[in-house]
Amino acid sequence: MQSTRKIRVLIAKPGLDSHDRGAKVVARALRDAGMEVIYTGLRQTPEQIVETALQEDVDVIGLSILSGAHKTLFPRIMELLKKQGLSDVMVFAGGIVPEEDIVEMKKLGIKEIFGPGTTTDSIIQYVRDNLPKRN
Amino acid sequence: MSKNEEIVNGVLAGNKRSIAKAITAIENCTDESPELIARLFPHTGKAHVIGLTGAGGAGKSTLIEKIVREYRNRGKTVGVVAVDPTSPFSGGAFLGDRIRMQELSTDEGVFIRSMASRNHAGGIARATKDAAKVLDAAGKDIVIVETVGAGQSEVEIIKVAQTIIVVHAPGLGDEIQAIKAGIMEIADIFVVNKADRENANKAVIDIQSNLQLNSKQVAWKPPVLKTVAVTGEGILELVGKIEEHRCFLEGNAECRTALLKNRAEAELVEAIKEKAANALIDDLRRKGKLDEVLQRILEKKIDPATAAEKVLKETLNNDRT
Prior knowledge:
The complex is a heterodimer.
Chain A: E1 8-12, H1 21-32, E2 36-39, H2 46-56, E3 60-65, H3 70-83, E4 90-95, H4 99-108, E5 112-114, H5 120-129
Parallel strand pairs in A: 1-2, 1-3, 3-4, 4-5
Helix pairs in contact in A: 1-5, 2-3
Chain B: H1 3-12, H2 16-27, H3 33-40, E1 48-54, H4 60-73, E2 78-84, E3 93-95, E4 110-116, H5 121-137, E5 142-148, H6 152-158, E6 163-168, H7 181-186, E7 189-192, H8 200-213, E8 224-226, H9 235-251, H10 253-286, H11 290-298, H12 304-320
Parallel strand pairs in B: 1-5, 1-6, 2-4, 2-5, 6-7, 7-8
Helix pairs in contact in B: 1-2, 1-3, 2-5, 4-9, 5-6
């Protein structure tokens, strides 16, 4: 039987921010790059995001946020991922995260933050280069 | 304990991580997956499997969300497998069925998995059926498989179900032709969703007259229901009909046995086809004969069907000697 492994990515929008154009652009780009992208829509709670990651057994999570609530939401998400034994999932973020917060976010375990102006190609390449080895 | 044992035990205990890992192994056709299925198979057969199909835009995901809620109200646990097409160009997929069901993701009694068809025509049917088996073995009372009724493999996928529901919506453009002939014959319940739209009644009448043209005598007459999934209108009746169908199957041992036997035979045939084809082609390749056969076909010296017959005969004869 042919083994067909695909990269599964969850693109999630935590919190109350309802600007999803960027998230959809990234989702479509990853799909066009051959990945399976689960997009869960707007207004996701950290609990919903982590549950989805668990059930869908994703390799990567991309968090899209433009509301400024990352300092509340990201720590909660990372904490829940750890609790569910999903620390081996690679998490990146995009949208509006101020320079001064990036270091703090990375310390939480968020591997990379893609700000405005990032090309979809660079995100695709990043995901491919940093695909985690899963348990 | 081996990894497989751990996963199997986890699935039987209803552990979500194990369920997720099992489905991933099946999707990826890993070396461990046949053993996983073999071990879980004896624990299947308890769930009622519902297949839901219909053209894109008919409102299947919204309908499923309401159906799941109703079953949860009745104290049942539910597994959902939502299948979406893989792009033939990129090999990727946008899996968005969860959007309509996301409020259910934190319900402990619900497990939702999105699957991409991954373009192996027979393979997706097998992978979906096996994913449904995992959810069945994990103790879900109800398993819902959702697929877009667009191709032959969708007809195959939906045969995993004991109750098949076809969803249609008025104004999708191609009216009843949208319901593929293969699905029309095996559907147990028809639903006209978005029934608040114009032409909903016409759609119901069209489906009903189509059913009447089908002169076969059947023990179960597929009803045609109207729903407005967004508001929940008609959902109670729909779930009622699903339960009625389930009772019908349970009460009618002959029907039920015939159904299960048919399905088992179909699955066996598919499995044999897949394995036999792969084994024979691999064998040809290993013997270095594949190119030779292909060349003869290209030169029109032999047609593919006859070539296949020869390969099969030679292999069977070799096995006998």
